[in-house]
Amino acid sequence: MQKSLAKNNKNTLLMTQGNIWKLLITFSIPLIIGNLLQQMYNTADSIIVGNFVGSNGLAAVGSGTALINLIIAFAQGASVGAGVVVSQYIGADKKDKIKISVHTSICISIILGLILSLLGIFASPSLLIMMKTPKVVLKSSILYLQIYCGGLIFNVIYNMATGILNAAGNSKKPLVYLAIASFTNIILIKIFKLGVMGAAIATDISQAISCILAIGYLLKVKSDYKLYIKDLKINKETAVKIIKIGLPTAIQNMVISFSNVLVQSSVNAYGATAMAGYAAYLKIDGFNILPVLSISMAVTTFTGQNVGANRLDRVKKGMYSSLIMVLVYTVFIGAVLLIFSHQVLGLFTHSAQVIMYGQLAMKYFCPYYFLLGILNVLAGTVRGAGKGIPPMIILLFSMCIFRILWIKIALPFYSSIDGVFILYPISWLVGAILMILYTKFGKWLPHKQMEKKENS
C-alpha cells in the first residue's frame, strides 16, 4: 500500500519509509527558506521605511508587528490542525478522507480569513491605543495596520494551502510562491513611494499573489490532495477533527502573541527610540525563530504521517533528529548575530541610540534560542501525534501566564528596559523544562495508550 501511494502521487513526499535525516532535511530546507522569504515582507517594509522615512516610520511599522502576529498566529493554528489531519490520512493512504479534509480546510480558511480581516480593520485603533503607542506615531501605525489587515484573508488562505502541501511533504512549491511574492513586495514598495501606506499596500498585493499561486497549484495538481471548486464544502466530522487539533494550537498561538502585545506595551513606555530599536530586532528575531518553527512543522508532518501508517518506531527517531538540527542551527546563528550585531541593525537605521536598544535585545535573545528550539520541536512532535492540548497548556503557561506575572510582579523592580528583555529567555527555559518532562512521562503516543488499557 505504501509503495502504491508513493508511486501514484509523485507530488507527495512519503515520510513513512527511507532515511529519516534525509527526509527531514529535504522537507525542512524549503520550509526554512520559504519562511525566511515570508519574513522579508515586513523586513523590507522596515528597512525601506526606516531609512527613507526615519525612526518614527520604523516605529509605526514595528508597533503593529505584535498585533499582526497575534491575528496570523490564530489562523496558523487552524492550518496546523488541517495539516495533522491530512498528513495522518496520507500516511494511512485513505484517499477519500484526504479529499474531504482538503476541501473542508479551504472552506474554514475562507471563513476565518474574512472574520480576521474585518476584526483587524475595525479593532486596530483601539488596540494600538491600549498598547500605549506614542501619539507621534499613532496615526501612521493605525494606517499601516488597517491596510495590512485588509489583505489578511489572502494570508490565511495561503497558510491553509501551505499546510495542506506541507502535510503531503510538498514544501518546495510554497517556497517558489513566497520567492515571487517577496521580490514583488520589495519592487512595489519602491514603486509606490508612499512611506508607511505604500509598504502596507505592497504587502497586501504580494500576499494576494502567493495566495492565488498556491490555490492555483492545488486546483491543477495530480494527486489525492487536488482541490475541486465544486466540492468545496465543510464536512462536519472532519471539521470537528481539524478544530480539535487546530483550535488548541490557535488559542495557544493567539494568547502567546497577546502576551507579546503586553511586552510591546512595556517597550512602548520607553519611547519611540526604544520602540524603533526593538522593532528592528524583532525583524531579525523572525529570521531566528522561523527556521526553528520550520523544523517543528517538519517533525509535525513526519509524526503525523508515521502515526497514520502505524510506524511508531520512527516517531521518536524523527524527534531526536529534529532536536539535533535545531540545536546546531540556533547555536550557530546566535553566535553570528552577536558578532555582527551593529552591522545587521545598521540595515534598518543609522541612529546610534536605536542600534543600542537593538543590541541590548540581542544580548538577551541570541544566546538562548536553543531553549526555544527544544520547546518547539517537542511540541511539534506531540502535536503531530494528534495531541494538541498538552503542548497548548505548556506553551500558554510559559509564554503567556508566566510573562504576564513577570510584567506585573518582577518588572517594577527593574529601572531599565533590561527587565523586559530578560523575560524572554527565562520563559523559554520554563517551557523547555515542562515540555521535556511531558514528552518523557506523558501518554502521547498511540501505543502507550494501548499499553495502559491492556495493563488496566
What do these coordinates show?
The chain has 456 residues and is an all-alpha fold. Helices cover 83% and strands 0% of the residues. It has 19 helices and no strands. It has helices spanning 2-8, 20-52, 55-63, 65-92, 95-130, 135-150, 152-167, 172-192, 195-220, 236-268, 272-308, 313-339, 341-345, 352-365, 369-384, 389-410, 418-421, 423-441, 446-455. Helix 5 packs parallel to helix 10, helix 7 packs parallel to helix 9 (195-220) and helix 15 (369-384) packs parallel to helix 18 (423-441). The protein starts with a helix and ends with a helix.
Radius of gyration: 21 Å
How far apart, in Å, are the first and last alpha carbons?
34 Å
Q: Give average pLDDT, whole number.
A: 83
Helix run count: 19
Largest sheet: none
* Number of E strands: 0
| Residues in helices, as a percent range | over 70%
> Which sequence of SSEs, written as H and E, runs from N to C?
HHHHHHHHHHHHHHHHHHH
Percentage of residues in strands: under 5%
| Low-pLDDT segments, ≥5 res | 1-8, 448-456
**Structural class, from helix and strand content?**
mainly alpha
Shape type:
globular
